[in-house]
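Quick question, first post here. What does this chain look like in 3D?
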Amino acid sequence: MEETKQLNIWLDGEIVKYSDSNISMLTHSMQYGSGIFDGIRAYDTEKGAAIFRLKDHVKRFFESAKIYNMKLNYSEDEISKAIKDVVLSNNLKSCYIRPFAFYNDSNIGLSVYGKKTGVFIAAVPFGNYFKDKDIGIRCKVSSWRRISRESLPLKAKASGNYANSVIASIEAKNCGFDEAILLSTDGYVAEGPGENIFLVKENKLMTPDESSDILIGITRNSIIKIAKNMGFEVEQRHIRRDELYTAEEIFFTGTAAEITPILDVDGVRISNKIGQITKTLSEKYSDIVHGKDKEYLHWLVSVET
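> Answer (accepted):
Ran it through. C-alpha cells below.
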C-alpha cells in the first residue's frame, strides 16, 4: 500500500501523485457500482515497456462507457496516450494498468442524470495473479450463478457486475479452493470470477460461447487466434458442468490471470501436472507479450511511441 501511494496516476487530464488525488467518498460509483473500467498489462521487452493490445482494450473501455451512456470527455487517442504517460511517469517496465471512469458526484441518489464524470488511470507493479499459477490451481463450481445478460449488459466491464464475481470467489476460498467457476443461469459453464475458461480434450480446445453469459475477453480472443494459427481446433459452444470433470486439461485466461492451469475441479483431479497444450500455449503467449515473436509484434505498443 505504501508503495502504491508513491506512484503517479492520471486523473482528468493531469498526472498527479496517487496520495494527492482527492475523490469524494460519496461518489455515485462507489455507492452504486456505476463505474466502468478495463484491465491492461504492459510487459518488459527488449525495446522497453510495451502494452499488450492497447487499442483493443481502449476500444472496449469506450464501448463499456457507451453502453452505460457515460460521457468520457476524452477521445480514444487521448486515453491511449494517458495510459502510456502513466507507465512512463512511474518508470515501470512491467505493470497492470487500470483505466476507470466514474461519476464524480457526492449527491445521494441513484439517478446519474446531470452527474459529472471523471476518469483516472493507474499503473502498478504486478506479478502472478494466482500464487500457484506456475503449478496449477484448484477450483470450485460456485453455488452462485453467473448474472444473465438479460439482467445486466455483460458486454460492459462495469463495476457492479463484479459483485457477482466477488461473492463466488469468497465462497470458493472459504471452501479451501483457489478460485470459483460460475455456471450460467441455464446451467452451462460460463467463466471464472475474472477469467475466461478453456477445456482441452483429444487435442481440441473448447470454450464457452457468448450465449453462455461470458465477458468476451481480449486474452480469450488472443488465445483463440494463437491456437488456430498453431493448428489447433477451437470450438466455442455451450459446455456442460460434467465436461469439466472429464477434460484432459483446463485453464483460465485473462489479463491478470494470463494462462493459469486448473488441475482440480470440485476435488476431481483433472491432471497431476500441467497439460502439454496448456504449457505450449502459455509459453507462446509469454513470448508474444514479451516481444519475442515477430508474428505478433503488432499486438504490442511501446509506451515511448
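The radius of gyration is 19 Å.
Residues 54-67 form the longest helix (14 residues).
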